[in-house]
What does this fold into?
Amino acid sequence: MTRYRQHCPVAAAAEVLNDSWTLLILRDLAEGRASRSDLAAGLPGITPALLTKRLGELTKAGLVVKAAARGGSRFALTEAGRDLVPVIDRLGRWANRHLPPPRVSDLDPGLLARDLCRGVDTAALPALPLVVHIRFAESAAPPRWWLMLSRDGAAATQVAPGLPAAVRIDCAIGALAGVWLGHRTWGEAVRDQAIRLTGTREAVRAVIGCLGVSRYASRDAPPVRTG
It folds into this structure.
């Protein structure tokens, strides 16, 4: 931990928050209770030892609490940690508005697929589950992901599910990330053929209607017209 040795509260906050991965751990815990493996999946590149260290530091600082749960320990924000969520959201919106868009080399298909699931409005889904097949076009063997959408929740997987896909999304990862971040609308991306949607009109409408935008998006993306 960097010590600034100042009376300023900003300096005191920076001592707790400016170490690598700390803000990202808090960002993910803002979504709810999570296991160590859940956190590791959303933080590719962090080592197990460093994740353990950062969780210990945040627990000692009173921002995170560890609780026993079925299947293993889970971590959650304390009241002090929850008070930071609006600050993190504001920081994300500031960056999304004022900093350059992410480089293609910084985009991860798995993280994007999981983020899409976090933004799903499950109440807008039909009664029967929907499967969305996403094919990214960056390579000769493009990464493939499936979104399993139902009123009980949403999950991303690289394992083909037993149900047929109701909608297929063919896209460059940058195009889908741009829609998710609110830099362009679904309609704009489809008209430019940066994203291609395949499926019945009803299925496409259902999927676009339930897929939201990032909590850091500067504007809401209206649903694409399908007819």
